Amino acid sequence: MDDAGLFDTLDLTEYEATALAALLRLGRTTAPDLAEATGIPKARIYDVLGSLSDAGYLKVIPGRPKEYQPHDPETVLERARENKRQELETFERELDDARDSFLATFESAFEEQEEVRPAEELFHVVDVGDPSESETRRLYHEADRAAYVLTKSFEYLDAVSPSLAAALDRGVAVRALFYHPDLLDEGERRIQESVTERLRGEFPAVEFRFSTGELPWRGTFVDPSTTYDDGEAIFLVEEPEVPDHMRQAALTANGSFVAGFKRYFELVWDHESVATS
Q: Tell me, what's the pLDDT at 110?
């Protein structure tokens, strides 16, 4: 990974990331010297350093010429955290300020158009990849009681692990049904082995078993109810000939459908799965 890549989470531009990385390595220096060391155009270097200073990542030392002193790496991370906290507080305050006006403008109109719809759609869809992973994280965040996972190898665990951990911390029960390794190719088996080892180590509260037969769909559903009035799900049907990046996942908040998912899950869990691979 190059220097700029290391600072992606700080939301820095390429020039800002390059300059900060160089400062952390070189220490106190001048703008012209930093421009020469990094290849950042001299016409841009002062703006770049000004942005880093405004973010609290470095100190400006008065003089002729000025010098720039980076804060230590731990302080840089703490400043980044504080910047994000303040940014979120500002966003929430602006959202609260706009709330009454927004609701007054759109709520009644939305309810009126909803009333004339013949029925609520059973599903809507999102692309598989970042959009589907974002929806999966949302389900973990909103789960109150239980979450169920149907998966080949849970290869997207990295993308959802913070949300999964938060759900477990809230007391949400999580179960996962994997494909049995005999049903996977060599690459999928390696991924599954790594993931299940990680679950045992980092998420021991997650129960999992291995389905002895292929599953017709994969996905996540949360909070099913025997009264059919709760729960959400995201899933995709098995289409082996279609690459994942060309597929879409379906989402539903239909309580009856989610309850049916749970019934299917329980049948496979109890009668068509094994505890070890």
A: 82
